[in-house]
Design a protein that fits this description.
single chain, alpha/beta, seven-stranded mixed sheet, six-stranded mixed sheet, 13 helices, binds 2'-deoxyadenosine-5'-monophosphate, binds fe (iii) ion, binds zinc ion
Length: 493
């Protein structure tokens, strides 16, 4: 059998050669070990084409420059200046809610028959996978009971195990049956890909079957195409995890933020940025809630959920001239199972009544002007961190890339993230957004991946006792602003 690592690498070298680009040894080694090798190659070629210096040899330094370029956010510390009085330009602020499950949810979140839910997940992702040339006309899983070469399968991952002999065994399932997939220990690049595969995601497999096992020669995730850059002549501010009602809520920093966004704080450059803001998106955990984890009540400044939302309405109520989109998180007053319906008037009367506030579900998709923003609080990050080696709460840039490749916001079922057994799986990323906005981990992150802005908006809460136990050091008071296509971060502490 052809050695897969070599085959893939010769494809990569060929791609560069076709563009008259050479790879030096260190660059070759880096790309070989990178799980996003195929993507990096296309993007590097594009990056080099835009490089005026006409470099024809890719070095490791150049790859690092490219990765930092995609990661870059511009940090800006607020300057105290309460005197500024600038008035936002009179702007037209069209927005549309493209996906909101609040009135589409058919269950009360109880777990009963999940087959409908998983079938829908399978069908949605299968329709993406089967468009790939290497998976065209996929076969039914029951074919794995026969001896067949060159098979193409699409299934949901049931389990991933190491075998005694150092190979990996993945069990996958489709509506016709189950199959055992062997990843040979000599296939280094496939073993690397396996590190990113988690239970319950949908993958494609190619390989040969001996009537008992499929010997894989590739594992294929749905992935995303490169998202074309869009014109953007305004700015969007992203918040999450404000945790109003917690003793650790940094009210001073938040007040500075409110003053800044209203154009009454900061130096001229900072107020210019504020005046360019057309939308504010809040991605969950607006308040601290009640009884979320053991002993939380000891850290509550406002031990009443209604009063917490009243305080939120008082603070947010000062922002009157731009639309504010609010989605819930695991601390908010709505069902915990995802998708979570919007926070209702029952708990947050004043906020719901505020003219410029739009309550949406978690997840949801909004189109702000022309920019599609998918909002997801990020509860599933806790499960991904447990499932994938070497990740912690500060790695949400890597996790968001992974979720885009899996085309699913919460792939793992049955761990910390409760998923409701809906008839449709709303957590599938059906369409590639321009921005994926998440929160939950309380640590800011940003990366632009295949043209999609992946942003995590941190928090306004200082470290809690619970977070001390988990060794989570929050980056509080850092607010990401997507300004005319560039990510900036305002620091209010
Ligand atoms: O989440 C605050 C922080 O705590 C965030 O970094 C995630 C982490 N967290 C929350 N719940 C868990 C569990 N169950 N395991 C591990 N880590 C967790 P917040 O949603 O604001 O409480
Ligand atoms: Fe939070
Ligand atoms: Zn949270």
């Amino acid at each position: 059998m052809e050695n897969n690592t070599e085959r893939n690498m010769s494809n990569i070298i060929e791609k560069f050669q076709n563009q008259n680009i050479l790879l030096n040894h260190n660059a070759y080694r880096f790309i070989k070990d990178e799980s996003y090798a195929d993507t990096i190659v296309d993007e590097l070629i594009e990056y080099m084409e835009s490089d005026k210096e006409d470099n024809y040899i890719v070095t490791l330094e150049m790859i690092n420059n490219y990765l930092n370029f995609e990661k870059k956010r511009i940090l800006e510390t607020i300057v105290e200046n309460p005197e500024t009085k600038k008035i936002r330009k009179n702007m037209n602020m069209p927005y549309e809610i493209k996906m909101d499950i609040t009135n589409q949810s058919y269950t009360n979140g109880d777990i009963h028959d999940l087959s409908e839910y998983f079938n829908n997940r399978y069908e949605k992702l299968r329709s993406i996978l089967e468009k790939k040339p290497e998976l065209r006309n996929p076969m039914e899983m029951k074919i794995t009971k026969s001896k067949v070469d060159n098979i193409r399968l699409i299934g949901i991952v049931d389990s991933i195990q190491n075998t005694k002999n150092g190979h990996k065994m993945i069990e996958i399932e489709d509506p016709t049956g189950e199959g055992k997939i062997l990843i040979h220990k000599d296939q280094e690049d496939l073993l690397n890909k396996c590190k990113n595969i988690v239970k319950d995601e949908i993958v494609g497999i190619t390989g040969n079957c001996n009537g008992n096992l499929v010997i894989a020669d590739d594992i294929i995730q749905p992935g995303i195409p490169r998202n074309p850059e869009k014109e953007m002549d305004f700015s969007i501010v992203f918040l999450s995890d404000v945790h109003i009602g917690s003793k650790m809520f940094d009210e001073k920093a938040f007040n500075h933020f409110i003053k800044w966004i209203n154009g009454n704080f900061g130096n001229e450059k900072q107020t210019d940025l504020a005046n360019d803001v057309k939308y504010l998106v809040i991605g969950g955990d607006l308040v601290d809630g009640i009884g979320i984890y053991p002993n939380q009540e000891k850290e509550l400044a406002i031990p009443d959920i209604y009063l917490q939302y009243e305080e939120a309405a008082r603070l947010i109520g000062d922002i009157t001239d731009i639309p504010i989109i609010i989605a819930p998180g695991n601390h908010d007053a709505t069902r915990l199972a995802e998708p979570q319906p919007a926070i209702t008037e029952q708990y947050a009367m004043d906020l719901n009544k505020q003219r410029n506030v739009e309550m949406v579900s978690n997840p949801s998709i909004v189109t702000l002007d022309n920019i599609n923003v998918e909002i997801y609080h990020g509860r599933s990050f806790d499960d991904i961190i447990m499932a994938m080696n070497g990740l912690d709460h500060s790695n949400t840039d890597i996790i968001m890339k992974e979720l885009m490749e899996k085309r699913h916001l919460a792939p793992i079922y049955g761990e910390r993230t409760a998923l409701a057994s809906e008839f449709e799986d709303y957590l599938v990323i059906d369409e590639v957004p321009d921005v994926l906005h998440t929160g939950h981990v309380h640590i800011n992150s940003y990366i632009k991946y295949k043209g999609v802005h992946l942003v995590n908006s941190g928090t306004f809460q200082r470290q809690t006792e619970f977070q001390k136990i988990y060794n989570i050091t929050p980056t509080y008071g850092h607010v990401p602003v997507l300004s005319r296509g560039k990510m900036k971060e305002m620091i209010f502490t």
